[in-house]
Amino acid sequence: MKASDDRNACNRLLILAVDIDATLIQRSTESNHHVDNIFYRTADIQSDRGRREVVGEFLGNYAAKKFSIIFVNSITMWIHLNCGDDGLRDFLRYISSIAEYILIEPQDWKCYQSAVRRMKKLGCQPFQHFPVLEWRENVSEQILNYLQSKACGLKFVKDLGQTELWNRPLYLFTSL
Q: What does the pLDDT profile of the chain (176 residues) look like in tens digits?
């Protein structure tokens, strides 16, 4: 390779987008205009299989140990409601181990209460973990503290303000 080829390889942006919802992944795949750079995969990131077969394989294919950045948008609440406090802590530890930077958008307790009401109104099964969640009213603060704890070992970089649509905070952390 020539030096210019090395620079181009280093500047290539690759994105792995993962969601448990196969319909969302299918829609995204169908509208993907950057198939050489953006890869959509359906996976349960909470499972060893999803972590190994989707995330691990992607990193391995590009000889990478970590992602440069992981975006965690509007999913902490769903992981928390479906997997409990331990499941959310496990997720936060996992992403901390595979990212140089994490941009996270935690949902506040009001969002949890709305989700529970919506499920009840629709006649769906209630979230089994909801009644026993320890991280409650101050869930965003709990997430921030946990990311900075010894368990995750991240350093807080910056509060990036609020999202325009949902008015949720955006926080940047680093493992560096």
A: 333 344 444 568 999 999 999 999 999 999 999 999 999 999 999 999 999 999 999 999 999 999 999 999 999 999 999 999 999 999 999 999 999 999 999 999 999 999 999 999 999 999 999 999 999 989 999 999 999 999 999 999 999 999 998 899 999 999 98
pTM of the model: 0.91
Distances (CA, A) of 132 to 77, 82, 106, 112: 14, 12, 19, 13
Q: Which domain holds residue 113?
A: 66-176
Answer yes or no: do 143 and 170 share one domain: yes
